[in-house]
Amino acid sequence: MSAGKSAPVPGSAPTTVEDLDDVVRLAWLAAIVESSDDAIVSKNLDGRILSWNAGATRIFGYRPHEVIGKHITIIIPPELYGEERGILGKLRRGESIDHFDTTRLTKDGRRVQVSLTVSPVRDSQGTIIGASKVARDVTERKHAEASLLYSEQRLAAEAEGLAALNMRSARLWQSRSLREGVAEMLVTAIELLGADAGCVQLRNASGEFGLVAHQGLGECSAAVPDPTGLDELVISDAELDGPFEAQRSWARASGYRALVSVPMIAADDTILGSISTLSHSPHRPADQQLRRLTLYLRQATDFIRREQLEQGLRQSEEALREADQRKDEFLALLAHELRNPLAPIRYALAAAKKPGRSPEQRQRSDEIIERQVEHMSRLLDDLLDISRITHGSLELKKARTELTSVIGAAIETARPMLDDKKHGLSLDLPKEPVRLDADAVRLAQAFSNLLINAAKYTDTGGRIQLQAVREGDEAVISIRDNGIGIAPDMMPRLFRLFSQAHAPDARAEGGLGVGLALVRGLVTLHGGTVTAKSEGPGRGTEFVVRLPTGMPSEEPSRTEQTAEAAPAGAGMRILVVDDNRDAADTCAMVLELSGHRVQTAYTAATALVRGATFRPQALVLDIGLPDLDGYQLAQRVRASDWGRDATLIAVTGWGQDEDRLRALTAGFDHHLTKPIAAEQLEALLQPRQASKS
Question: According to the CATH classification, is domain 333-339+385-548 in 3.30.390.50?
Fold first, then answer.
């Protein structure tokens, strides 16, 4: 003991470090280590254990004599041997490691979570000779942290689930109809319960349940049993015995093993219906899934109740919409039908101003004007009485009519729509004349409606086929497209007034829903029938019209008569091609009165034959021809030896910039939009006429 220091009193605790001698100090430190709750272990640089306190025994289960001299890996899991090598490497460099969490093994093989601190041990020379480790058991803390994390995750999942449920509820309230909302309910229920199929039944005003929506049931949807009552029904395996045999038998018959049926009850305890889900394999939804479905159905029942209470209002709105549709139908038909007669009337009036017209030409002009005015008057009378059209009670103005001329007029009406959608129209018409006792205007209207309908519901660049054949005493006209088709459930009401085969947003050109009803009414008044066929959405549609007809007529065509009677003059040789006979004849008359030699043709085929012999210097070509369109005809004329240098003038009702470009690309020199002023046409021909003088 150092001089000047007094020995501590035996049995008393030292008060300062200076009161301790080295031996006592070491004993004191040993007592502190031994009484620590933490594991305090020392080892040499080879990893051999040198000391082991009571805390280490408590945590790891080994007594000192079982581990001293053993390698420290006795308490280290094999996958963490690399971690130990890293610790030894840091010790040799004199580094300490403070409080890192890791895993250690107990004597009985358990794994404990510890917080480890490692410090190097130096000798009196400062050389590192080993390490001391302090390990604190943090298993409970880790469990608490894991429990807290699990709780947080559950809360987050619950919050996420409720947020998703709110989103589904918001989507439900955005539904535009009860049927759309019920479909949304069914999808949500199937997803919430993790099922494979399902159905929704609603109670009607008579208290009876009826199937409103189903998914994945197929033919078994017709055998859905009524709900059993107000209780929730869960059948986790239909193969097990138990109650609710009707539902169990239905599940078996449908090919499903599990079934859940939940009632939909309004706030006033009125049962509105039920929603059922089915699974292919045994399945019981978790309680949380069922609770979420119950929460969702509270919103669903409120939605159903609102829709039912507003049904009367929606019916009134629907009546107003139908009235508005009738107004639009009237205006559209009026504008459409009055446009066609303007061209021949304008030509006839221009011819009437010519000083040199003959009595025969004057008479023909008067007849054309009178005929077209009568036609317009008749259209006005019929269109003003829209109720007769919508009820199929229109009185037809029948006369002996040739079928191809009717089809040609229909194509001319539909041509702007066909051209705008860039559809290809192929024709297969009978070679022999087919005569009908028909109202040519109304019958052409029926065919044009079918063509326009095909054009509307066929994607751009589609194919439309029109075929007409004679079968016994019937003319059979088929119009087929490769468009979006018609769903089977729409077929029964396809020809119903104001009914549309597609959703309002399926095509921007969607009409007023009267076209097909008018087609059926007009065809029926002609003693015929019209049917529709479609293999379903995306598979196209075919309409077939059957009309009664008599024996083939041998009456010579007006084309031949007009061509042979065309007088010769001193002007240009001009060929006028138009399937509208009045338009072709009046145009020819105006040109004849201007001194030209003119022939007419009412089909592209006749124009090609007549052009080879007549060798015209100019051709006025209508675009909408029944056999070839004007663009195709122009290309054939340009490819011939007689038409290579001729002046080609396109006549069309479609006057957009792209239509003009298409005409010039096809070989036309000029593009005119109907109705055409005679002066405008003659101005285009004057330069050529002057050059021939």
Answer: no
Helix, coil or strand: residue 137: strand
Average pLDDT over residues 19-28: 65
Taken in order 215, 220, 225, 231, the sign of the CA dihedral is negative
- For 319, counting Cβ atoms within 10 Å of its Cβ (0-12 exposed, 13-18 middle, 19+ buried), the class is exposed
Q: In the numeric block, which tokens belong to residue 76?
A: 């280290």
The answer on pLDDT for 217 being more than 60 is yes
What's the pLDDT band for 255 if we cut at 50, 70, 90? confident
Residue 483 to residue 501: CA distance in whole angstroms: 12
Residue 617: the pLDDT is 94
The tokens for 195 are 């099922």
Annotation: CATH topology of 558-692: Rossmann fold (3.40.50)
User: Residue 393 has what pLDDT?
Assistant: 54
State pTM to two decimals. 0.33
Q: Which helix (H) or strand (E) holds 619?
A: strand 618-622
Q: Where are the beta strands (DSSP E) in 230-377?
A: 233-235, 258-265, 271-279
Q: Which residue has the higher pLDDT, 150 or 327?
A: 150
Q: Please say whether the beta carbons of 194 and 289 come within 8 A.
A: yes
Break the chain into its structural domains and give their ranges. 36-137, 152-309, 333-339+385-548, 558-692
**Percent of all residues in the chain with a pLDDT value above 90, rounded to a whole number:** 17
Distance from C-alpha of 126 to C-alpha of 547, rounded to nearest angstrom: 117
* Confidence at residue 568, expressed as pLDDT on a 0 to 100 scale: 37
CATH class of the region 152-309: alpha beta
- Tell me, letter by letter, the H, E, C secondary structure of 221-261: HHHCCCCCCCCCEEECCCCCCCCCHHHHHHHHHHCCCEEEE
- Three-state SS at 573: strand
Most trustworthy range by pLDDT among 201-210, 267-276, 571-580 = 571-580
The two domains 36-137 and 558-692 share their CATH topology (first three levels equal): no
pLDDT at 550: 62
Degrees, nearest 5: CA angle 346-352-354: 115
pLDDT of 213: 82
Complete edge-to-edge strand list for the sheet that includes strand 647-652: 597-601, 573-577, 618-622, 647-652, 670-673
* Integer Cα distance of 646 and 630 in angstroms: 15
User: 607: which 2 tokens?
Assistant: 């124009």
Dihedral sign, Cα of residue 359, residue 360, residue 362, residue 366:
positive
Cβ contact 280:198 at 8 Å: no
d(CA 390, CA 386) in angstroms, rounded, equals 6
Residue 620, beta-bridge partner list: 576, 649
Reference 52, options 64, 44, 60, 43; nearest CA is 64
* Euclidean distance between CA atoms 21 and 17, whole angstroms: 8
Strand locations in 423-524 (E): 424-428, 435-438, 463-471, 474-481
Amino acid identity, residue 636?
R
Q: What is the pLDDT at residue 655?
A: 66
Give domain 36-137's CATH number out of 3.40.1550.10, 1.10.10.10, 2.60.120.10, 3.30.450.20: 3.30.450.20
